[in-house]
Amino acid sequence: MSKVICDYLIYHEHNPRRALELCAEATREANFKDWWWKARLGRCYYRLGLYRDAEKQLSSSLQDQNMAETVLELSKVYIRLDQPNAALAVLEKANKQTTGETRLMLGIARIHEMLYAIEPSVSSYKMVLAFDASNVEGLSSLAANHFYSYQPEISLRYYRRLLQMGVVGPEIWNNVGLCCFFSSQFDLALNCFGRALQLADDIADIWYNIGNCDLAYQSFKVALSVDGEHAESLCNLGVLELQSRNTEAAQAIFNSAQSKAPHLFQPFFNGALLAYKLGNIQDSHPDPLNQLRIQSIEKLCINSNSRQLSEIDLPSETSRGAKCALAWPAILLRVP
């Protein structure tokens, strides 16, 4: 009964302080030998932000009983302590001792992905699918990896597999539509985007992705009407205004995108490039820090062969073969 009350306090009442008192008393009654109460003590400490105490209790619990759930909680503690290598070591050690536990493999894959170690992450996801061929996270992660590796046809296979399994939602149809579009199956792409909009018409990213087709201008407008803070749509709308030779409107849109998304480089690069080509040197380089940043971005964009750069022609009096950076051309939505 006390274990049920403990879980009730943690998960339903969200009162880890009171649950901690119960766990401490129960641990004393068990002579500090019950792994379950030690694990709950570690969970309470984790929720209270006492990560070192949580590490101590969870490690003690693992010494008494090796449980996958406890290992996962200990890895979360190390992640919060900014020690991903320690989390990987704990998960890999437990994975060797417990064969076929997909939760541990998924934890390893997530940490590798967080560290941008793509190859080990992909290997871990493939190992997950070797033990559980219907694992949704493994399928969707491999599909996203193939898509961003310019292999939309292979990515489409994984998403079709998810559809066959009954995973239906706006995210999956959006991703299938993107794969069809970049596989040159334009008729199927528009139908998939239509399905996505039927299921959830309030996601600006879907309209943004439709903007890569012939309905670009109107789709970006719809995306902004749904989410006025969608800076990627603003940036690409500014590029379209430039292509229509509406330089003043483009400049205003770039300025708006800069204020809404200071973490994106495309609005700053486009705005600085437009100001420079129009002769507004003081606007293109407002301070030495921005000047250094713009110069580095310009070198990066000129040397890059990525498809995110699109040639644009400014009006004849300022045309110098400039390049304007589009925002990322596709946003894959995470499959829940």
UniProtKB/TrEMBL annotation:
Report the SMART domains cross-referenced here. TPR
Regions crossing the membrane? none
Query: Would I find Transferase among this entry's keywords?
Result: no
Question: Could you name the Gene Ontology cellular component terms for this entry?
Answer: BBSome; ciliary basal body; non-motile cilium
TPR repeat ranges? 170-203
PROSITE patterns in UniProt: TPR
Q: Which GO terms describe its biological process?
A: non-motile cilium assembly
| Keyword hit for DNA-binding | no
Kindly state which keywords UniProt assigns to this record, in alphabetical order. Answer: TPR repeat
What name does UniProt use for this protein? Uncharacterized protein
What is the protein's species of origin? Answer: Aureococcus anophagefferens (Harmful bloom alga)
